[in-house]
Amino acid sequence: MTDATHLKATIALSTATVELSQLRPYLLDLCCQVAYQEGDFTLSSGQPSAYYINGKQVTLHPQGAVAVGRLLLSMLPSGTQAVAGLTLGADPMVTAVSVVAAYEQREITALIVRKQAKGHGTQAYIEGPLLPPQSPVVVLEDVVTTGQSALQAVERLQAAGYCVNHILALVDRQQGGAALYAKAGLSFDTIFTIQDLQQRWAVLSETIC
């Protein structure tokens, strides 16, 4: 068993309690194993790509969800009252952060932003507990490419009266998202960049071969 394999086997049993410094390399390996692929793809933005990252393979993974929740929780600005994101990619992320926070005796509300208003009942764009006006909310995204999805969530949350200044992501493909957020006056941070995944993926591929 290689050192990397041993690390994964060990941490997979304790993602709820292992130190954050060990959790990040575990999550990187998981991203490479289940979310990253190379080939010919067309992204949701319409752009062609030689690789694809399916973030939901990580955020819906039992250990991956805990790891993502803990790492993103540690990155939230002080005073954050809620996390939110555009459905579907952000749904498991906001849930994971909220649940992990509860286990750490913190109260972080989870909000889901619809792509279109609900066609019945309240016809709301935002699902989740109603918070006081100007409550600080951080928007989450699994994979950032152009940045449009998270920005759409920000705009709808701001229109609802919330204070949104930060976006956090699992992976930044570095194809314009960060510049878009900066132009909108939003701070942006990410657990991994595409370079992190590709460098680690290359190492893991050599190990398998």
UniProtKB/TrEMBL annotation:
Residues binding 5-phospho-alpha-D-ribose 1-diphosphate, per UniProt: R114, K115, K118, H120, E141, D142, V143, V144, T145, T146, G147, Q148, S149
Record-given protein name: Orotate phosphoribosyltransferase
Gene Ontology molecular function terms on file: magnesium ion binding; orotate phosphoribosyltransferase activity
Organism placement in taxonomy: Bacteria, Bacillati, Cyanobacteriota, Cyanophyceae, Neosynechococcales
Coiled-coil regions listed in the entry: none
Entry keyword set: Glycosyltransferase, Magnesium, Pyrimidine biosynthesis, Transferase
Protein family according to the UniProt entry: Belongs to the purine/pyrimidine phosphoribosyltransferase family. PyrE subfamily.
Catalytic activity line of the entry: orotidine 5'-phosphate + diphosphate = orotate + 5-phospho-alpha-D-ribose 1-diphosphate
Binding site for orotate: T145, R173
Organism listed in the record: Neosynechococcus sphagnicola sy1
InterPro entries (alphabetical): OPRT (IPR023031), Or_phspho_trans_dom (IPR004467), PRTase-like (IPR029057), PRTase_dom (IPR000836)
First-level EC class: transferase
